[in-house]
Amino acid sequence: MNFFTGKNKDSGTNISELRIPAHVAIIMDGNGRWAKKRGMPRTFGHTQGARVAETILEDASDLGIRYLTLYAFSTENWSRPEAEVNALMNLLRKYMQSSLEKCARNNVRVRVIGERSVLAKDLQESIEVLERATASNTGIGFQIAINYGGRDEIVRAIKRASGEGLLTDPAAITEDMINGHLDTAGIPDPDLLIRTCGEQRISNFLLWQLAYSEFYFTDKAWPEFDKAELEKAIEAYNHRERRYGGLKA
Ligand code: IPE
Ligand code: IPE
Ligand code: MG
Fold first, then answer.
1. Which ligand number lies closest to the CA of residue 76?
2. CATH number at residue 83
3. What is the pLDDT of residues 88-122, one digit of tens each?
4. Ligand 1 touching residue 30 (CB < 6 A)
5. What is the spatial distance between Cα 208 and Cα 193, in angstroms, rounded to a whole number?
């Protein structure tokens, strides 16, 4: 972004003229490769990635994005070496604590999605503290996906509905009912999904919710993602025509 003109130097488009997606979801990928390229351990990439997550939350809020969902740890990520899993869990611990004051001050409403019951007790507690402390905030809705898998979320949603006796009448099984039992209940589906570092797959993220999202892939690794990159993604989004199966408006 050019400071004087407010224009994006790659395109000449002014961000203030763009349609801002209400909900942006991001698969923050490439921490390990970014670190390795610099001769550093993978965990160095995760530390830097956590910093970027904090600044992107502020940037998203500044741009007027209403919901931001970040994929922090998947149900499949447990298969990584124990030392890396531990390092990621420790970073999440720190993140919950450093976010507490910041999110409260910046009017951010935090919700952690994913199966949290298998996380360490202290981490579960700091998640609850953070959610409770920010629950009545009215600014950006910030979802952090931890031990999250799209398939696991759907299975848990169905179990929850079953526990409430909602599966006995087939007529009561509707998309709205399933939607309302997902971890993201009440949150609109993502308009834009961003994945960093070149891979073009969704890796079990928000399988249900991404039904009609626009996808944006960049080769930039997550630790080097910034506000200008976010603006580029939003600009690309503005060139998409969302038809939802219908015809051109
Ligand atoms: C994303 O970076 C962070 C997590 C998945 C937790 P990676 O750790 O996947 O980095 P790469 O893809 O191996 O470079
Ligand atoms: C997806 O990245 C999970 C997160 C960003 C938390 P991965 O690096 O785990 O995905 P794959 O293994 O490349 O599909
Ligand atoms: Mg990866």
1. 2
2. 3.40.1180.10
3. 999 999 999 999 999 999 999 999 999 999 999 99
4. yes
5. 13
Helix (H/G/I), strand (E/B), else coil: 217 = strand
pTM of this prediction? 0.95
What pLDDT score was predicted for residue 202? 98
DSSP string, 143-162: EEEEEE-HHHHHHHHHHHHH
Most informative mutation of 75, 77, 92, 113 for ligand 2 (most atoms within 8 A of CB): 77
Tokens for 216, please give them.
Answer: 């944006």
Please give the positions annotated as active site: 29, 77
Query: Residue 13: helix, strand or coil by DSSP?
Result: coil
Residue 37, domain extent: 19-150+190-236
Other C-beta atoms within 10 Å of 211: how many?
Answer: 11
**Closest residue to atom 9 of ligand 2, CA basis:** 77
Asked whether residue 249 is domain-assigned, the answer is: no
Ligand 3 center from residue 24 Cα (angstroms): 19
Render pLDDT for 174-188 as a digit per residue (tens, 0 to 9).
999 999 999 999 999
Which atom in ligand 2 lies closest to the alpha carbon of residue 73?
6
Give the CA dihedral 74, 77, 83, 89, nearest 10 degrees: 10
Neighbours of ion ligand 3 (CB under 5 A): 29
pLDDT digits (tens, 9 = 90+) for 122-159: 999 999 999 999 999 999 999 999 999 999 999 999 99
Give the number of the ligand closest to the Cα of residue 71. Answer: 2
Ligand 2 centroid vs 43 CA: distance in angstroms?
Answer: 15
Residue 198 maps to a domain: yes
Reply yes or no on whether the pLDDT at 11 is more than 70.
no
**Domain count of the chain?**
1
pLDDT > 60? residue 1: no
Q: Does 11 fall in a domain?
A: no
Q: Average of pLDDT values for 54-80?
A: 98
| Mutation probe of ligand 2 site: the residue of 33, 69, 74 with most atoms within 8 A of C-beta | 74
